[in-house]
């Protein structure tokens, strides 16, 4: 996908997912409060 | 004395002055509280930035700077993913577990994790037995980990400052003791925040140097040319033989962040009105940035493929690819990474003795001045005890001692701390879980070839099973507390 390597692709996806989860939860909680 | 060493001493001296100043300033927080929470829980004063920084700095020990690049050098990109798993794990623990833990601990007035376990599962004599067992296991296992950290920090400081390893360890632990005695968990958290900033700058300097020399695509291509398995491995070695084994690090690291007393106690130290999603916004980028450091191992495999030992990847990189001033600064940051874990361990071990064991033996409260004195004396006593133990620690397998201490403690406490948030057992279940988790994880790590992640995870499963079964079997004589 990114590097033609499952382990590096997962590394990139995990980084994006980690930042994404933090942002999505912050937005949802922010809208709730 | 060589010129380079003089510069290192100056850098080290400046950092000591700042650390002790932070310790002195943080002592005001200790004295502002009228109970033990001032020393043990930073007066429940941590905000999102400092709180997130102390969680991430404590979770990413010197392993990320020294051990992990060596593993990446030997096994390739799998280590990049394995080491990274601690970042989402800490984020998930902060976003989805901390709120429950803090609410429950506040209701029960718990200042430490052993105290939380005891109050959650029983009152009176039975509760005190649970309290004592949790405290003793915490002291025994974290003292092993603390010893390995002090040994590692002593070895690194010795090489950097041109000292014997014994003097390196003595100087480093003395500074840690001094600021921790002054400010308790506040000092630990504030110095952790400073150290984390240094560690992130170090990670960025390293990435800047590496990627101006080789672009990520070139680095991958060169590694593939050396050995395709470095980039496209058929297994998850060293984490396991199947491809998916590396993902087991995620549940392990989540338990690490949520259950281990020296990690979980940080969550109790946040101010009462904290918004956990704000903390998550700091934890995620901090974790992602620190997770880039093992790239050094991959870079060194391309640039210097003939190193006699994989563990030399980072020291050789600092010596050959960075200006001495940057090399000195990054070595200081590696010392910071080790210190930030060591100070947290020392604080947790000491409070398990001075607070938990004291209350388990004699639950009557002493006055605030006396307890503060006891808490501070314990820091000094355990700090120097760990220094003495360094002389007897085996000269090898520092990482193994770390895993033995943390992994086994994780398996010991997973039932009473984590499973109890979903299904509450009783005091007998908590005791059975602690004993079986300790025996299974410790036994598998010491006497079998099970992996470093598999042993503790198997211990977690057995411990959780016994927590539920023994609680159900004994519910007639000790009813399970109601889950509110």
According to CATH, the homologous superfamily of the largest domain in chain B is: Sodium/glucose cotransporter
Gyration radius of chain A, rounded: 13 Å
Largest inter-chain interface? A-B, 21 and 32 residues
- The helix-and-strand class of chain A reads mainly alpha
The residue fraction in helices of chain A comes out at over 70%
Low-confidence stretches of chain A: none
- What is the beta-strand fraction of chain B? under 5%
The shape of chain A, in one word, is rod-shaped
**Total E-strand runs of chain A:** 0
Q: What's the SSE pattern of chain A?
A: H
Name of the CATH architecture of the largest domain in chain B: Up-down Bundle
Helix content of chain B: over 70%
How would you portray this structure in words?
The complex is a heterodimer of chains A (33) and B (484). Chain A has one helix at 6-32. With 33 residues, chain A is mainly α. Chain A contains 1 helix and no strands. By secondary structure, chain B is mostly helical. Chain B has 2 domains: 3-393, Sodium/glucose cotransporter (Up-down Bundle), CATH 1.20.1730.10; 398-484, no CATH class. The model of chain B has no long low-confidence stretch (mean pLDDT 90). At the A-B interface, helix 1 of A face helix 5, helix 6, helix 11 and helix 14 of B.
How would you summarize what this structure contains?
The complex is a heterodimer of chains A (33) and B (484). Chain A has one helix at residues 6-32.
Q: What does the secondary structure layout of this molecule look like, with pairings?
A:
The complex is a heterodimer of chains A (33) and B (484).
Chain A: H1 6-32
Chain B: H1 3-32, H2 37-40, H3 48-59, H4 67-75, H5 78-84, H6 86-96, H7 98-108, H8 113-121, H9 124-161, H10 165-213, H11 216-226, H12 249-259, H13 261-268, H14 276-290, H15 295-303, H16 313-321, H17 324-361, H18 368-392, H19 398-418, H20 427-447, H21 454-473
Helix pairs in contact in B: 1-10, 1-17, 3-10, 3-13, 3-14, 3-17, 4-5, 4-15, 6-12, 6-14, 8-9, 9-10, 9-17, 9-18, 9-19, 9-20, 10-17, 10-18, 11-15, 12-19, 13-17, 15-16, 17-18, 19-20, 19-21, 20-21
């Amino acid at each position: 996908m990114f590097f033609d390597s499952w382990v590096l692709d997962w590394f990139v996806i995990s980084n994006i997912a980690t930042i994404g989860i933090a942002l999505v939860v912050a937005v949802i909680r922010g809208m709730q409060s | 004395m060589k010129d380079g060493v003089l510069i290192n001493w100056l850098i080290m001296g400046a950092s000591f002055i700042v650390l002790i100043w932070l310790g002195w300033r943080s002592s005001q927080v200790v004295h502002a509280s009228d109970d033990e929470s001032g020393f043990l829980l930073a007066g429940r004063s941590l905000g999102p930035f400092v709180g997130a920084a102390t969680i991430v700095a404590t979770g990413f020990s010197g392993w990320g700077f020294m051990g992990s690049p060596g593993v990446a050098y030997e096994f390739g990109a799998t280590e990049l993913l394995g080491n990274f798993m601690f970042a989402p794990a800490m984020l998930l623990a902060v976003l989805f577990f901390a709120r429950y833990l803090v609410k429950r601990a506040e209701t029960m007035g718990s200042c430490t994790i052993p105290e939380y376990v005891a109050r959650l599962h029983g009152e009176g004599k039975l509760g005190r037995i649970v309290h004592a067992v949790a405290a003793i296991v915490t002291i025994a296992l974290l003292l092993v980990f603390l010893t390995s950290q002090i040994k590692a920090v002593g070895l690194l400081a010795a090489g950097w400052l041109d000292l014997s390893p014994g003097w390196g360890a003595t100087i480093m632990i003395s500074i840690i003791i001094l600021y921790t005695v002054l400010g308790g968990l506040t000092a630990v958290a504030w110095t952790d925040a400073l150290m984390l900033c240094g560690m992130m700058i170090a990670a960025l300097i390293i990435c800047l140097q590496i990627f101006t020399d080789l672009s990520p695509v070139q680095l991958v291509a060169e590694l593939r040319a050396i050995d395709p398995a470095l980039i496209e491995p058929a297994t998850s070695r060293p984490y396991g033989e199947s491809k998916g084994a590396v993902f087991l690090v995620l549940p392990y690291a989540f338990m690490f962040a949520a259950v281990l007393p020296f990690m979980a106690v940080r969550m109790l130290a946040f101010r009462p009105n904290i918004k956990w999603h704000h903390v998550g916004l700091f934890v995620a980028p901090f974790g992602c940035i620190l997770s880039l450091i093992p790239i050094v191992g991959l870079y060194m495999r391309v640039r210097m493929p003939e190193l006699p030992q994989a563990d030399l990847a980072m020291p050789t990189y600092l010596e050959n690819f960075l200006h001495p001033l940057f090399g000195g600064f990054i070595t200081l940051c590696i010392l910071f990474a080790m210190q930030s874990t060591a100070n947290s361990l020392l604080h947790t071990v000491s409070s398990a003795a001075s607070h938990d064991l004291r209350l388990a033996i004699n639950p009557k409260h002493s006055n605030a001045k006396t307890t503060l004195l006891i808490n501070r004396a314990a820091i000094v006593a355990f700090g120097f005890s760990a220094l003495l133990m360094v002389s007897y620690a085996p000269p090898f397998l520092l990482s193994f001692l770390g895993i033995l201490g943390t992994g086994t403690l994780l398996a010991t406490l997973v039932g009473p701390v984590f499973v109890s948030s979903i299904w509450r057992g009783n005091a007998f279940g908590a005791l059975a879980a602690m004993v079986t988790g300790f025996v299974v994880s410790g036994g598998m790590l010491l006497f079998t070839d099970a992996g470093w992640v598999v042993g503790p995870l198997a211990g977690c499963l057995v411990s959780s099973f016994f927590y539920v079964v023994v609680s159900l079997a004994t519910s007639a004589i000790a009813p399970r507390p109601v889950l509110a």
